[in-house]
Each structure stands twice: as C-alpha cells, then as structure tokens.
Queue: 4 jobs
Job 1
Amino acid sequence: MYNGEYGEGKAEAMEILVSLGKIYEAEKMIPITSAQVSGVSYKTIGDAGLDFVVDLGTKADVMLETMLNPAGVDIDNWEELGFSEEFTSKQIDIINGYESIGVMSTCTCTPYLIGNTPMLNEHVAWSESSAVCYVNSVIGARTNREGGPSALLAAIVGRTPYYGNHIPENRLADIIFNVEYDFSNEAEIGALGYFVGQIVNDKKPYFKLNSNPGRNNLKTLGAALASSGAVSLYHVENVTPEAQYVKNNDSFKELETITVTENDILNTMNSLSSTDKIPDLVCLGCPHASISEIQKVAQLLKGKKLVKDLWICTSNAIKSVAIQCGYAEIIESAGGKLVADTCMVVAPVEELNYEIIGVNSAKAANYVPNMGGLDVVYDTVENLIDMITK
Ligand code: F3S
C-alpha cells in the first residue's frame, strides 16, 4: 500500500499514518477491525470540512466496518425540529461524501450499541472521545483517541500505528480513586467523571466503587472523564475487563490514592448547572441513549403531558427498536421527540430560540454553556422530566 500498489489514495493515507507513527515512535503498523469517525457535523467542520469529505470520494474506499459520529441534524426530521434547509443540505452532502467511500451513515457516538462492538484486545481506530473511553474501558478493545482524519485514514488502509493504548503496558492505571459514596443516579456518576477528569487530564484512573454502576452509567462516566479531562481509558475494580490485570501489576502498589467524598460529588453536581430556572428544552441521550434509557423515559412519561420540549438523542437504529417496543409512541404522545443522527452539542441548537437546556450528562453540561450563551440545568432524568411535565 505504501508503495502505491493499491492505488494512490491508499498510498497517501498510509504515508500520513506512517509519519504519524514515526512521531509517536511506533515500531510497526497493526491491523484494525473497525473504525469510528468524528468530524461529521457541518456545525463543527464547516465548508472546509465539507470540501475535504466531498474530495474523499475520488480517493479510496474504507476497508472495514466504519461508522460515523453524530451529524448536525436529524436527517429525517430536520424541518419539524426547526433546522434550516441550507444547513441540512450541506449536512447531507457531508454524509453522502462519507457514504461514497463505504462509511456507514449510522450517525452515532454509541456505535457499540448498534453492532460495531469489538471484542477484548481487538485493535480499532475510533475518534469520538466518549466512544473511545467506552470501547477501551468497558469493552477492553484498544484504540488511541484518534482525530476524525486519522481514524478515517486507518479505515482506508485497515491499519494504525502501534503506540499508546495499543500497547498493553500503556493500559495500566496511573492514579487510584477510592470513592466513598453510594451512587444512586446517572447525574452523580457523571459528576464523579467530571471531577476526576479535571484531576487526571489524560492519565488513566482506577476506580474503587461500592457497587457496579452498570453499562449505561459507565457510558456516562467515560463521557464525563473525556470532556473535563482527556481520559481515553479507565478501570473500575471488579467491573471492567482489564481491572484485574492492572491490579496484579507490581506498579499498582506504588500508585497514589485519592479519596472522593460525598462533598466532591455534590459540589461538582452544583457547579454543572448555570441556573436554577426551569429549562425550555430537556435534552437526554449524551452519549446517545440506549434502548433501556429510552424505556425508562417512556415509563416516566406514561400518562403525562410535557409543558416544555423534550429531545431524546439516539441512533436511528435504537430509535427503530424504540418504535418497535412502543416506547416512541408513549414519548411522542406526551409531546417528546426521539431525535436521531444528531445531539444537543453538535446540532445548531443555539439557533432554535431556546435559552435554558436541561441535561443529565456532565459532558453536555460542560459544552452547552459555550453554545451562544445558553444556560444549563444539570439533574437526573427523573427530576428533569418532573420539571417539564404536568
Ligand atoms: Fe455524543 Fe453529542 Fe454527547 S456526540 S457524547 S451526544 S456531545
């Protein structure tokens, strides 16, 4: 490939990845089994990104299962949600560009919920930060925190440089967090992630928790760690697949331990809200909602009417399951919307005349205030739904 036997596009991609590998002193290139590409929303990549993607079609196809990150609009319901035709048409051009080289247009940050689910120790090249954290930590597959372009190039050549999280010794923990608090909801676990991410930045935390938080909460935890810090891998004792390997290593005994108290969690929760007013839009599903999270919202909404807007962001695939299970109907008859392909951060929500957004994700709470001066309310799904129903 490097020498051009498989075409110019693959040679170009390989050349860039080999240069990247040299920068990180990688000893070799290794095969990967899947890729996940960020840099999809027109809001974040703009016209320069659109030109880059349209140009891709003339280069080379991807060689393996490659999924896209959320786009800037819900492709099927953009008009109903209030997005402009101009924005949507540019967004569709971007998605078509990716599709033309074989990328699956499943626009989601939770590809692991819809079939792009590697196995323990598999090497992959993923780029969305919360997905990177989940696939490394909860699944035990191996990826660096790729940029959108490097993940795409890896998908084109089916290989990535062997450095960072691909090397077993680099997956060991750096700091132990002894958490003296019994979590009862997703907002508290998100606050833990946010608190710890600020301390560790890109280091690897090892958590000692009183109980197993479950898959949905681990998704929330990783997203928060990756947004206040740049965490790409964490371990939870007796829960995540590599925790025992990490604990058995001699280096573990030398690690610093930090105790996290109830105060740390509650103070962080408070700091994540910028107002105590009632939100005019509640946005759930950051990272994109799983079917059990949607089921929970449907249960909370049964027989109620919303007095403010509600979006539950998810992938199109999970939305189809929600329709099949009857959850979509319950949510829609209460006045809520299942929003596919996009999310409250990568969609131009600031153009839709909302002022206060309610979220149960620390990652979303971190980003929403930067979007055109919107205020944010951070709370549990139960409390948020309570605030906007009658
Ligand atoms: Fe996903 Fe958007 Fe949150 S991409 S992790 S729902 S900010």
Job 2
Amino acid sequence: MKFPHDFLFGAASAAYQIEGAWNEDGKGITNWDAFSKIPGKTFEGTNGDVAIDHYHRYPEDIKLMAEMGLESYRFSISWARIIPDGDGAINEKGIQFYNNIIDECLKYGIVPFVTLYHWDLPQALEDKGGWINKDIVNAFARYAEICYKAFGDRVKHWITFNETVVFCTLGYLNGAHPPGYVNDAKKYFQATHHVFVAHARVIQIYKSLKQYGEIGITHVFNPAYGVDEKEENQQAAFHANNYQTFWYYDPILKGEYPTYVIDALREKELTPDWNEEELALLREMAGNNDFIGLNYYQPARVIKIDEPAESIAMDRDKSTGRPGNPSFDSYYRTVMMDDKVYTKWGWEISAEGFMQGLRMIKDRYGDVKLYITENGLGDEDPIIEGEIVDVPRIKYIEEHLRAVKLAIQEGINLKGYYAWSVIDLLSWLNGYKKQYGFIYVDHKNNLERRKKLSFHWYKHIIATRGEEL
Ligand code: BGP
C-alpha cells in the first residue's frame, strides 16, 4: 500500500529551538530567554540565544527541506517576536520574518503547519502570572487573531498549543521549565484550565474569520500501560490515562473534564477556579476542533505505589522523560522494564505501544482526524568517515511509520506524519548533544548544515509514498 494522496509527510521544529536572534529586530524577551540563563537549569547552560541561527539561515534550511521532498513543515511562531510584551504593540519585523518563512515554504510547495504556542511566552506576561492569570486568555486570543489576519491567507493549518501536559507539569510540578514551581498542583490544574479556555477562544475566533483552513491542538500522546496484569497496576494505568491523557483530550474533544479526575480534585480542594462562562465555551467549541495532533515518543509503564512518594522535585535526569517518577498524587510511578528497549536517554522505543494507544484514542473519541505532529529518535549520531550514519533513527521512524500505515488500514483517521525534527536543534534541557534531525548542524564549524543518511532515506520514503514500508 502507498500512503493515501492526501496524507502529508512532514517534519517539525519550534521557534526557541532553532531561531536564535533572541534579541534582534524588536523581539521581546521570553520566559525561556530568562529561565535558560539561571545557572543549573539546562544542560551545560545551553540556551537558544543563537540556537542553530535559523533566523538568518532559513532560506538555506527550507531549500534543504525542499530537496528532501518534504510535503509539509511544522514550525512555531514566537509570540514575543510578534508582540514583544505579549499584549501591547505589534512588531512589524516579527510579522515580516514569518511572512518570509511561509513564502519560502510556498515557493517550494511545502505546506506550512503553524503552532501558535510552543512554550516561549513573553516574559512580561510571565511576570504578570503567566498561565495562572486569567488575563492571559485575552492576550493569547489577541495574539492568535493577529497571526490569523497576517498569515491566514497562506497558512491553512493551525495548531494552538504544543503539549500542555509537558509545559504545565514541568513548569508547576517539577520546576524544570519556567516558571519553575515545584509541587504546586493547584497552579498546575489552574494553568491547564486556562490553556483549554484559551484554545477554545482562539478556535472560536478562527472560525468566525472564515479563513477555511483547519485548526486543532497538539498533545503529548503517552498512553499508559500497567507493568503487569495485576488489578492494582491496571488501575494505575487507568488512573494515569485519566490524568495524563483524558484530562487534556476530553475538554478539547468532548467539551468537559473527566469525572474521575474532577471528583478527586474536589476532594483534594484542587479544583481550578473556573466559571460557567468558561465551561460553556469549552462545551460549545468541542465540536469545532478539526483535528488533534499527537506527539508520540514513548508509552508509560506504570506501577501502583502505596507509600507516600518522595517529593517530585526532580533532578534534570528525571525531568527529561526518563521513567522513574511518582505521579503528583503518589498514586503510581513510571518504571523502566527489563524486557523493553530504551534510547540513550531512557525513552522506551515501542511502535506497538503507539499502535495500541491509537486504538484507545479511536475507542474514546471516534473518528477524530489525527496528525502525528512529532515522533523521532533522540540520539548522539555516529559519524563514520565524515558521513552521519544515523541508522538507529531510520529504524525508529521506519517502525513508527509502519504503525501509522497499519493504523490507516484499520480505519484510524490519520492524515499526516511529522518527524521530530527536521534539523538538529536545541533540546530544551539536553542542549545540542541530543540530536533528532535529518539535517546535521556542525557546532564546531560555523553551524554548517549537512545531510544525514536519514535525509536520503526519508526522501525515498516520501518519493515512493511509503510503498515499501
Ligand atoms: C517534545 C517537544 C519538542 C522536543 C521533543 C524532544 O516534548 O514538543 O519541542 O523538544 O519533545 O524532547 P527532548 O529534546 O527533551 O528530547
């Protein structure tokens, strides 16, 4: 089988991880510009000040994407380039930059798939409480509308938020991302609620503008499985899926929160401060979501725990996706298992867990349209005689693309696949050591770009529409 003609083969990036030019052309300071400079927060103090300098080198980068045959490029807009302080004056040079990126993509027939929020928040808004302050919903709505009006004539695919569970968990429970709170479950749930309301608002605005594109949200897709068949571990998986998946997907797709979580929050006095107007908006907009983007890297293997777990304030090693942490309510813990295969960073490799999870999504949410908006292997790529032979990446993507094909054959409504990442870039907490790209960036040689083995492989997959998979 070839992949259907309307299936998009893509690859992704995010503004902070590639652009650099952190203080150029009127851009405002973001939470990440500030946070990454606090000693000890990132791997060897790396930050995105220069990143891979995509801000200046985008013509070369997009030309390479075109050469690879990429059909669609997912990238994010940095809010602080458009509105430096988040809710004030517009920076025309920021608009111009993204116009250039979009036009450059279209020049080669690459479909731009744009994320509005991939974690870099204008610091001025963070200073006012960020996602805890209800005013952020209005600020985000204004920012989104400015983007729709500036770019919507050419951009027909919009993602509102990237991975709410990650920036909220790491920002309010683990302290590993800005704003760096530790164990603040009250703030955590409040922030998630404001994100969902902001999402619903900007869906509403988008639809009212009648730009006739599609809009959705991207979530982490981290299906949980019990480590064995024991009832308590199956219950742990049910619990984890409710908190990590359904809490995030239900308000978007069903317009309401899962009762299992709501009941527990009420008991613990952690219910977000929400009002009837907000809840009504979630209900109203649920049917207007055009798709869900799934970022899949690994499943979660969970085990029930009984004793109160230690604080979940994490060392960096544990806050970068490696299993081993207790849940915020000390109900379960994620674990590494002897019979599973892991990356160098301890992420499980499981195309089978992916497949099973896709079936779970279909069971719960029906025929909702899906895109895989991220999937890929973080590795330290081998270089042999000057060639970057990233065979493990090829193997990883191949296995997952096979699962995508199988899912389509099973009738799952999957319309595209975006490898993470199109080019080597800055990993939020792992610096430049952890590579994901099809294109190598030589940090010892003026950030020179080079094609990896996977570049040629993906080019072939796209050209043959995955027939050989
Ligand atoms: C996702 C993010 C991406 C990217 C990816 C890999 O959660 O959306 O921005 O960072 O994970 O993560 P890491 O760099 O930590 O391996």
Job 3
Amino acid sequence: MHLPDYKDARTRDKRGYKRVSFKFSDELRNKYRNKSYFIKTYGCQMNEHDSENIAALLEELGFTLADSYLDADLVLLNTCSIRENAHNKAFGMLGRLKHLKNEKKGLIIGVCGCMAQEVSVVDEILRDYKFVNFVLGTHNLYQLPNVIDAAIENNLQQVEVFSREGDLYEGLPVVRVNPFKAYVNIIYGCNKFCTYCIVPYTRGRERSRAKEDILKEVDDLICDGYKEVTLLGQNVNAYGKDLYNDYNLGDLLEEIAKKDIPRIRFMTSHPWDFTDKMIEVLGKYPNIMPSIHLPVQSGSNRILKLMGRRYTRESYLELFHKIKDTVPNVSISTDIIVGFPGETEEDFLETISLVHECQYDNAFTFVFSSRDGTPACKLKDNVSISEKEERLQRLNKVVNYYFLENNKKLEGATLKVLVEGISEKKNMYYGYSETNKLINFVSEKDLEMGEIVDVLITSAKTWSLDGKCK
Ligand code: SAH
Ligand code: SF4
Ligand code: F3S
C-alpha cells in the first residue's frame, strides 16, 4: 500500500527519471475474459486520454465495455480535483455505487485520477468507503492490471498512490474514443503552482516526453487515418525545458506541421511561456489550427499577483494582440475565475473590461473553489458566495455577448469543417471548424465521417453555427 503525502507531492528537485517501455504481463492477459467494465471520467482532456489508456489496459485483461455502469462488473471513476463540484460529483457517484454493490456483491469499484492523489480523499475512502476495492494514483497508471488482479484475488482494499512522479512510461496501450481526432500527451505535470490550483500536487513535476516518441505516435496516427491531433499538457508551452537545451514547443509544432496531418491543436498554454517562435510557427503553417486557449484568470493585477500567475494584465494583453496580429483569423479562448479571496468589485470590473478588450471566442468561467493544501486556501476571504455567484452571472452575460457577436461575423463565410457525425436531435451533420467552433449543417450529398468539407455559414448562435455544405 502507498498513500499520498502533500509534502512529497510539492517537491520539485532535479531528480532524474527513466523512460520505461511498458509491457503487459502475459500471465494477466485475458484473465478476466467474461467480465465487463465501465469508466466514468471527470475533468480535463488529460483525464479523458488517461481513460483511453485505462480502457485499453482493461481490454488486455479481457474485460469488455458495458453499455452502462449498471451492467458492469467493474466500475472505475477517473476523478478530477479541480473544483469542489467535481469532487462532490465523484462522491455522489460512489454513493450510488454503494447501493449497487449491496445488490451485486461481486461488483469491483475503483477510484483513480486526481482525487486519488488527495490525502483527505484517500483517508475518507479508507475510513468510510470500505466497499471501494482499489484506489490508484495518477503516477501509478501502469500498475492498473496488477492492482485490479490483487483486489480481486485477495479481496482486500488496494491503495497504490505515489505522491511523486516515478518513471515515464511509454507504450501504454490505448483505445481511442474518436476515430479521426486523437490526443497525444507531450508533457505531464505542472511546475507553475498558481496559488489556487491543485494540479501541481496531483500531477507532479513537469516531465516532457522525448520528441522521438511523440513524432512516432503522430506518424502511427497518420497511418491509421487520423485527421487531427491535439497535443496535451497542463502547460504545453513548457514542453522540452526539462529535456533539451534548445528545442521547445515551437520546434515540435513545426516538425509535426511538416507531416501529412490536416489538423494540429495544442492545449493548454500558460501565457508565461508563449515564445515568439511559437507565434511565428502558428502563423506559418496552415495545418496548425488558428485556435488558442490562453487562460487569463483575472483582469486585475492585484489578483493576478495573489494568484501567482507571473504576468500582468498589460503583458497578457500585449501577447494577446501579438497573436491576433500575426495569426490570420485566430480565435482565442480563455478561463476566468471570479471571487478569488479578497476580490473587490473594482478587481472584478477590471476583469470585465479585459473581456471587452479581448472579445473572446470562447471562455470557461468559474467561481473560485478553495482546494485543500493550496496557498489560496489559507487566504482571508470576505466575499460572500452569493456575491461570487452574482459576479459569475454578470461575467457570463458579457462573454456570451461576444461569443454571439463573433459568430455573427461568420454568417456568409465558408468554413472548413471536419465531419464528425450526425446529430439525431437535429438530423444535421456536425463537426468543428478550424477555429474549433461547433457547426451543425445540412448537405445534399452523403458525407463520409472524417472528411473535411466546405460549409457556408447561414446563421449564428451563441455556442454554435448553422450551415450548408457546399
Ligand atoms: N493548466 C491550465 C489550467 C488547468 S485547470 C492553465 O493554467 O491554463 C482549468 C481551469 O480551471 C483553470 O484555468 C482555472 O480557470 C480553473 N481553476 C483551477 N483551479 C481552480 C479553483 N481552485 N477554483 C476555480 N477554478 C479553478
Ligand atoms: Fe494549475 Fe496554474 Fe499549473 Fe494551470 S498553470 S495547471 S492553473 S498551477
Ligand atoms: Fe481535474 Fe486533474 Fe485535469 S484536477 S482538470 S483531472 S489534471
């Protein structure tokens, strides 16, 4: 048993790590042939992609995918710690699973993902959720087959959570959800330690994958017919810093852009590490999609400082405009937190004025949620919850206004859309534009999924656009 520890999780020394090739145990292959699994995923794209690895590990063990958690022999929650509501959702689901397990004694229940790295969560599971068969940390994914096997064979609660990142495992199997769009991890962890954020504790130190491994994965995806890759990391802009002297995300993007892949995306970019080389590469290669997620969090310098974001309102705006001026038709989205401890009405109005200046194409807005073990959790907070909620509503009105305004400008334009499916409700095709806007559209001829087609935009809505295939 390994339990999480925050002191360890905070450490950032230069301890080396090995690159290890994952090998699935021959003894365990297909051992659980007649059993089924269901994974419930919370949180970000990194968790979604981890679930694709988890699904593949389970399938190598012999499990098959169940239609619902109600029919499954094994239910795994891949959890997220970012805000309290993600945390509450996972515990709500555990409550439901407890009832299910009373009816189905052999049900195996596992918890993995970021919440598994939280000391208080693991304590609570050990104390009050004894029906959970295993807890597996984010640094322990490669141990999943052995942990499940031990949980079933010994019928004892297994907890395997390393607080510190271990070796970097390459070659984990993967079952991808989307046949045309693939996630590719390029960097794990985060060293930024924004004062509100739990990710540096749950995902460990920044560790880049070797460029050869990434390029090989992209080559394999191209061979398999994928049309789009999204390079993933909590802060992709830090790519390479821990491995190379002179090779960063700009270089990696350029190498991938020279390959025969129509669409390349990357997320998330912390404004701090956004280099000129990256902006130049973005402007130069048409297969790097002109869509950038650039979280600002707040428009007030006082709050940005308290958040430990390492940039000012002015330097953010300078970067924002540089990207807008260099990359044709770029769309920029953002994340914003309101109600950070001590945020005044004036601070909040600075965020609103920044939104008026940036007129974002998309924005994810949140009320500050205090996370155990982070520095912001100790800050004095005299802003009431109702005031925070009210600020969120006001902010949402402004961001929504610009989503619609930006979309309206596209009426009459022709956009390239990657066809992803047919929405049953609307009986229309749907897909995403290069700028990552959701397009619902009709077509006179039958279209292949995964095709990239020209769509004439006929009408704009706040969160989507309607169109007609040309
Ligand atoms: N690595 C990314 C963000 C990952 S978390 C970045 O720095 O840009 C996604 C978003 O969740 C953050 O951008 C932030 O807006 C929000 N978030 C993170 N911690 C939060 C907290 N404690 N309360 C509210 N929102 C939070
Ligand atoms: Fe969290 Fe900041 Fe790291 Fe993003 S950059 S994951 S907000 S600590
Ligand atoms: Fe959540 Fe962990 Fe992602 S906290 S946002 S699942 S990195």
Job 4
Amino acid sequence: MTEKRALFIIFGGSGDLAQRKLYPALYGLYYQGRLAKHFAVIGTARRPWTDDHYHDVIKQSLVGAPGSAHQKAEFADHFYYQSHDVTDAAHYVTLRDLAAKLDQQYALDGNRVFYMAMAPRFFATIAEHVKSEKLLSDKGFNRLIVEKPFGRDFASAKQLNDDISQAFTENQIYRIDHYLGKEMVQDIMPLRFANPLFEHVWSKDFIDNIQITLAEDIGVEERAGYYETAGALRDMVQNHIFQIIAMLTMEKPVKYDAPSIHAAKRAVLADIKPYTPAQVHANFVRGQYVGGDNVGLSYREEDNIASDSTVETYVAGRVDIANDRWQGVPIYLRTGKKLAEKQSRIDIVFKPTENNILPTAGDTSVGSDVLTLIIEPETGMHLTLNGKAIGVSDAVSPFTLDHALDQDELAKAPEAYQRLMLNILEGNKLTFTHWQELAASWHFIDAIRTVWDNDGADGLAFYNSGTMGPREADELLARDNRQWVWQGPAAD
Ligand code: NAD
C-alpha cells in the first residue's frame, strides 16, 4: 500500500461535516497506512481556535475509531488551525505562507486538496481568492472538492460552475455525491457488466419497470432552515436519484475509467427530456408530512418552518428515457421523510413470461422476476424468481435468493467518505459527478420546480407520518397497472 502525499486545506474546518465525516475519513486512511508521515491538514474557519484546541477537536471526532490514544494524538499533530474569514483576501496570504511551510516540512510534493466544507455561497469567493492569492501549487496536483448542494436550479449551478472554473479545470473539480460512495451503488456496474445473465436482459425487451426508493423515517431535524429552501426534489432527486438512474441505465462504458463512465452517464441523462407542465402534473406527485399521536409534529409545526409552507417532504414520479434501450420502460422514483421505515432500495422488475404453460395457484399469470438491491440500512440483494410450490401441488410459486454482504467484511470496509477521500488522493473521479450530468438533471428538475412553484398549495398531498407516503404515489403506478414492489415494513 503506497503512502499518499498531500496537504488538505479544509474551508469550514470547525463545522459539522468536517468533524463528523472528514476527520474520521482521513483518520481511516491514516490507520490503514495510506496516509502516514507525508500529509498535513489546515483547517480554517472563523472561530479563534488554537492548534491545541483543534487537536482536541480532532481527537474528539475519533472517539470510537480503532487505534490507540497515542496513534490518534500522532494523527492530530498533522493538523493546523487557521482562523480565517473566507471573504478577506489578507487571510489567504497567511494561508499561502503556511501551506508553503507545511509543504516543505512534510515533503508533500506540492499536492493540494482544497475542500469546501462550507455553505455554497462562499464557494465562488474561495475559488477566486485561491487563484488570486496564488494558493494553487505549481508542482503536484491541485484538486477542489465541492459538497452538495451544487446550485438550486440550473442557472445558479451554472453560475457556481463558472465561478469555480475560473480557478480549477473540470478535471480538478471533484463534486461529491456521497451516494456514489455507497457499497450497493458501486455494485451496480459489476452486476450489470460482469454478469452476462443480467447484461443481456438489461433493456426494454426484458425489463418491465424500475423502482428507486430512498425512504427516511426521520423528519427535517436540525436542517429545517436549509430544507425550507430546498425540498425533497432538490435535496434527493436532482442528485442522488438521478445518479442512480444514470448508473442503472447508461450504456456499457467503453472502459472502466472515469471519462468513459461520465460519457456514458451523460449520454443517457441527455435522453431524459424535461417535462411539459401537463406532463409534470401527470407524472410527479409531491407530499408533505403531517404529525399526530406518537409520530411527532407536522412539517409545518417544526421549528423554523413556515406555518403555511408548501415545501415538499415527499416526491414520487415517473421518468422515461427516450432511447432505443429504454423506450417505454418507466422508472418510478420516490423519496420522503417521516416514512414508515428507513430504506434505500432499487427494484428491477422483469417482464413476466408471456406464454405460461404451468399451473398457477390463482389466476393464470406467473409473477415477475424482481432483482432488488438494498442500499441501506441493510446491504445486499434479493432475486425473486418462480419455482414449484413444495409438495403435491405443481403450482408455480415465487421464492427469493438472498445475498447479504458479509457483515464482518462490511464492518471493515471504509465509510463512504473515506473511500471518496482515497479516490481524491488517487485522482480517481469515478465516484464524483461531472458538470454535464448535473446540468442535465437540473434541466429536468427545473421544469418540475417551476410548475410546483406556480401551483403553490394546489396539488400538495398530505400524508401521515409513519406511513409510506401519499396515496397519489400509489395511483401513479396503479394507472399503469403496476404497484410498488416494496409496500412498507408490514407487507414486506
Ligand atoms: P456548518 O455550519 O456546521 O459549518 C460551516 C463552517 O463554515 C464552520 O466551520 C464555520 O466556521 C465556517 N464559516 C462560516 N462562515 C465563514 C466565513 N465567513 N469564513 C470562514 N469560515 C466560515 O456546516 P456543515 O454542516 O459542516 O456543512 C458544510 C457544507 O457541507 C455545506 O455545503 C453542506 O451543505 C455540506 N454537507 C454537509 C453535510 C453534513 O453532514 N453536515 C452532508 C452533506 C453536505
């Protein structure tokens, strides 16, 4: 295992993301020996912390991580804190000098990772100052890491992209979508392209429909302020669900590398045409949770939420892909808060046999084969097939092959952020999103958003917390003579 060399400059070093995700991720790499002597981290934020206090914060963020206190202290010694207002040019000069000093001290070969762990409104000014105050290294690599949300519509996303592109090339920009770091999302490619069994049936000829569910059982919690400006469509559909759709439906990339995969994703996303207002009404449903006994507050009663808010906490929809492979295969998606159970899953429903000669228990139809990928909280897959019922009956009856990823292996596997950090150090952009993928998904989302913003409260469906969402989401499939494979915890 080769040791990586780099200086990390984390803007927002005192924040929640840095403490909960980034420091444990870096430590994970250190614990594995992928980071050793030749790395350093500058954390910058507004608070006037000392290095000593910063080290305590780092160690605190590692409580529960493996390794000795000594090991954690040695790791924390690589961290430097710089009190910094990102809008003030003078601070970048101090930062540049510290970066140059650490580069020498730790022999970092001029490799720099700029991590924007702050509110997006600061990204443009950071990129501008990084360039103008010459923080970019002229040897080694410069990589910029950008968190979601990447814009709130196409126009703002493009503005943001133009701004950061003043200082960084597309190749140097790593846009995070942490769903791409999840084990089962990463399993989509091997499943599709290393198994002829699936590869040859992955089209409209054999697949009836695809269902993507990202269900949460929690409400908005402490993210109310952000959520009121976003809603489920922006928060989950534009990014995570569209990335999953792209992974599921792209053509086979020419090679297993980032440029080929991005090209394949881009091509399929371009075949998802934005809806007209009438199509939005016909194909998308939005909902908002209401509370009650034992299920907590209604969305509109939560702190920092407007009492007449029309922000959606639930979205369901049908997406169609206008190309040869997928023409006529609906992709149904749904995501929401305060649902009956937390579960992220993909159900690929195959077409049933057309000419059934076998006896069946009820009517004459045989059920569809279904391939289910469970992304979380469990991790694994199920394949539901048809077999003979046990005993004297010859009737066809469904059974399921289950594959749960090995829990011990899984416990040893890195967290999504650790994998993303490693990919960043390796210059591997496979698990990051390309600007053109985002642009395509924003065009689709904007068309829906515009209609919903005009409609206001009209068409907003309320659903009870602890259920599977509004009945309109079931009707969306019933209209097509289909139903959700996953009906919720009770019926599963
Ligand atoms: P946070 O509010 O906890 O932290 C923000 C950081 O920015 C703090 O360190 C603060 O001191 C610093 N900051 C604010 N204004 C500053 C200024 N003018 N100059 C210098 N520093 C300043 O936010 P967070 O939850 O850590 O989120 C950071 C980013 O990551 C956001 O873009 C968020 O959308 C994204 N994100 C966060 C999470 C998460 O789990 N927290 C998950 C996904 C994405």
